[in-house]
Specification:
AA/rel_permease1; single chain; membrane; 19 helices; mainly alpha; transmembrane
Length: about 475
């Protein structure tokens, strides 16, 4: 059964809902200027998922989650993981079926139409860009914590904080963004190797924390277990959902996987499973090691738990170093994802195509990477880390809804299209994934929704002024499904 959009449709509505042909997507031009290098395997892709997931969420946001749910924050991690699991299944099917850069943007283009694809692409630019900027600001804070714990010295506020926080600009945040930009320009293989080393370091530090925490576990800290009841657990899950963002970034590198049909589903599901196991063990160890007040009152809750709960003062420096490594790898993976989504939108003509030219020397969209790196560095230098977690969460949950919807549409629109992996019990499981995403989105505050809608309206103006008229589907109607 063919998709229903008609290339010959003259109405604006049919053009807005025009879909990219699956065959044209999978067979993107392979000329030297347009082709990314297929250079990473399943292990490196899984490490990218872990690298993009384990970071600020477990090292920092667990404290905020504990303030909302108490020791029941463990259940909040489980709830967030279950919400992600259904969407991960959908990502796995679409990533293996359409192994092209762009993640949810590309999948929406093939299943739900150009307008929806633009909306989700614009949403992902916000999610990834703001996320990297916010994480870079957190990196600067953790750098100062590490310097203080290890050497008793900190960077002055003037060059370590944004103007709103009492400084002039955040130099550490700018440094880490530009350093990661350089690594990404050099090549995906080099980026994956750097990330693999960092993933090994931060998992080793988390194993150290788990061992110490369970050796000093106090069941008295678990009472009362859920002081705010179900509402507290759900509210915490909506916030610490930030801790699971990153596994979806694997799909943005589909075009650079050596064997995408096999490796992408393995990497997406394996990285989510590994991160969930670590999160549950770390959160359980943390609430058994320290009180809710100790965890929620600290900017470095895991270090505080070891210091105040186990009396291991030197561990604060070790955990601060682990947080630095973890946050660095998250920045690398998320900025990588943003460049690939932007690249796909440029290649489709919705944004200026000249930005997406591939460097013949490095095999990466070097120009685009540098531009985005400087913009994110500017944002990180001047903007404080406030409300970023919630804004990123709503963008990700919105993407999850459309990815799950895309799997359902593809099941009935192209049942004959070859898939190396299929979501079981489709459409039931994707519908459950949509329900979980809506459930968590509903718990986010009204101002977060308002900011999100303002961003989407701004994006629609750009689409109307440039993207609609310059889309490849206007120039190449043969590629319309």
């Amino acid at each position: 059964m063919a998709l229903t959009s008609r290339p010959g449709g003259d109405g604006v509505g049919s053009r807005l809902l025009a879909r990219r042909s699956l065959d044209s997507l999978v067979a993107e031009p392979a000329d030297g200027e347009a082709q990314l290098k297929r250079a990473v395997g399943a292990t490196q892709l899984t490490a990218l998922g872990i690298g993009g997931t384990i970071g600020t969420g477990i090292f920092v946001v667990i404290g905020e989650g504990t303030s909302l749910a108490g020791p029941a924050v463990v259940l909040s991690f489980v709830l967030a993981a279950v919400a992600c699991m259904f969407s991960a299944l959908s990502y796995a099917e679409l990533a293996s079926s359409i192994p092209v850069s762009g993640s949810a943007y590309t999948y929406s283009y093939a299943t739900l139409g150009e307008l929806v694809a633009w909306i989700i692409g614009w949403d992902l630019i916000l999610e990834y860009g703001v996320s990297v900027a916010g994480i870079a600001v957190g990196w600067g804070g953790n750098l100062n914590a590490f310097l203080d714990n290890a050497f008793g010295w900190e960077l002055p506020d003037a060059i370590a904080k944004s103007p709103e926080d009492g400084g002039i600009f955040n130099l550490p945040a700018v440094f880490i963004v530009l350093a990661i930009t350089l690594v990404l320009v050099l090549g995906v293989r080099e980026s994956a190797r750097v990330n693999l080393v960092m993933v090994g370091i931060k998992l080793a530090i988390l194993v150290f924390f788990i061992i110490i925490a369970f050796a000093n576990f106090s069941s008295g800290n678990l009472t009362p277990f859920a002081p705010e009841g179900r509402d507290g657990v759900v509210s915490a899950a909506a916030v610490i959902f930030f801790a699971f963002i990153g596994f979806d970034a694997i799909s943005t590198g589909s075009e650079e996987a050596r064997n995408p049909k096999k490796d992408l589903p393995i990497a997406i599901l394996a990285s989510l499973a590994i991160c969930t196991i670590f999160y549950v063990l770390v959160s359980l160890g943390a609430v058994g090691l320290a009180s809710t007040e100790q965890l929620s009152g600290s900017d470095a809750p895991l270090a505080a738990a070891l210091d105040e709960g186990a009396g291991i003062t030197w561990a604060a420096a070790l955990l601060s170093f682990g947080a630095l490594v973890a946050i660095t790898s998250v920045c690398l993976v998320i900025l990588f994802g943003q460049t690939r989504i932007f690249y796909a939108m440029c290649r489709d003509g919705l944004l200026p195509p000249r930005l997406a030219r591939i460097s013949p020397r490095f095999g990466t969209p070097a120009r685009l990477t540098v531009i985005l790196g400087f913009l994110v560095a500017l944002l990180a230098a001047l903007v404080p880390l406030s409300e970023i977690v919630k804004l990123v969460n709503i963008g990700t949950l919105f993407a999850f809804i459309l990815v799950n919807a895309g799997v359902i549409v593809l099941k009935y629109a192209r049942p004959d299209f070859p898939r190396s992996y299929r979501v079981p019990l489709n459409p039931l499981l994707p519908l459950i994934g949509i329900a979980f995403a809506i459930y968590l989105m509903a718990d986010l505050p009204g101002e977060t929704w308002l900011r999100f809608l303002i961003w989407l309206v701004f994006g629609l103006v750009i689409y109307g002024a440039y993207g609609y008229r310059n889309s490849r589907l206007r120039r190449e109607p043969e590629n319309v499904a």
